[in-house]
Write a sequence for this structure.
């Protein structure tokens, strides 16, 4: 049924009818409005039964992005979802979670509307160098282990250019801007969850090679000239070289003697513009 914006509203039955998962999305909390789906997801009481639950909202009043940014979350047109994971205490691959979530988004986008979105390390989803979506992973811990992880997914789906505020319009885009037709967010979400559960299962089974290859194939950061921003405030120019076994980005420093390689574990990168002659 269409919502007030004329787009099909989130619907549990429609989502379930396209799911092929065992756990992801089987328990769905669909909220008309929430501060942040991640905040809500982390309050889910019982870690024993929360694995795979999804908190989904039509609107966020305090949506959050990485690096303390806000996430613009207008009503009824986009995807704001948090997938709850309850990793086993022995799980060692936490740094790959946001990467496989981004990978799942690109696959679901292709399956749903045929567009080839790409990834900017670690987990920005891009379309023609504009930002389409992002992932924010947050967790609660018990001793040295994660107890709950909320994998927050934000994707601009049915926004038109005029729906973006001035400060976002130039660097952001949505699926509908490219397809020129409304996207069914229920089917899209189901495809995201199907892909995400498959990659997560492979990760828990330590089958890293296919994950690594699939991520590299979608990652535009490799081979690109970058401005690297580390969380300690340090910035430098470099070229993206490789993705490490731990999901880190290996870069080759620019203008440095011997062009040393550095591994980036956290922080952000800016893709420098490709100059066409
Ligand atoms: C980023 O690119 O900075 C990450 C954006 C993540 C946004 C999503 S929307 C659903 C979830 N809830 C939030 O408050 N943030 C994430």
């Amino acid at each position: 049924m269409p919502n007030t914006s004329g787009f099909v509203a989130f619907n549990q039955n429609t989502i379930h009818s396209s799911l092929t998962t065992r756990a992801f999305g089987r328990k769905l909390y669909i909220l008309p409005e929430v501060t942040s789906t991640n905040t809500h997801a982390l309050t889910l009481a019982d870690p024993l039964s929360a694995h795979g639950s999804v908190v989904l909202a039509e609107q966020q009043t305090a949506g959050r992005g990485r690096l303390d940014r806000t996430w613009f979350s207008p009503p009824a047109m986009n995807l704001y979802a948090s997938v709850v994971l309850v990793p086993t205490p022995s799980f060692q691959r936490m740094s790959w979670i946001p990467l496989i979530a981004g990978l799942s988004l690109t696959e679901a986008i292709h399956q749903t509307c045929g567009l080839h979105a790409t990834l900017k390390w670690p987990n920005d989803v891009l379309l023609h160098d504009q930002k389409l979506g992002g992932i924010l992973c947050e967790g609660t811990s018990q001793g040295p282990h994660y107890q709950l992880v909320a994998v927050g997914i934000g994707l601009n789906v049915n926004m038109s250019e005029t729906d973006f505020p001035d400060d976002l319009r130039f660097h952001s885009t949505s699926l509908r801007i490219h397809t020129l037709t409304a996207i069914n967010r229920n089917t899209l979400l189901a495809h995201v969850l199907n892909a995400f559960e498959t990659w997560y299962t492979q990760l828990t089974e330590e089958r890293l090679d296919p994950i690594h290859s699939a991520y590299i194939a979608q990652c535009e950061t490799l081979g690109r000239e970058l401005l690297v921003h580390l969380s300690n405030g340090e910035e430098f120019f470099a070229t993206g070289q490789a993705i490490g076994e731990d999901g880190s980005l290996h870069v080759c420093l620019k203008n440095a003697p011997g062009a040393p390689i550095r591994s980036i574990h956290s922080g952000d990168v800016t893709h420098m513009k490709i100059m066409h002659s």
Q: What stands out?
A: The CA atoms of residues 52 and 148 lie 11 Å apart. Residues 36-38, 60, 63-66, 69, 71, 80-82, 124, 134-136, 152-154 surround biotin (CB under 6 Å). The chain has two domains: 12-218, 225-271.
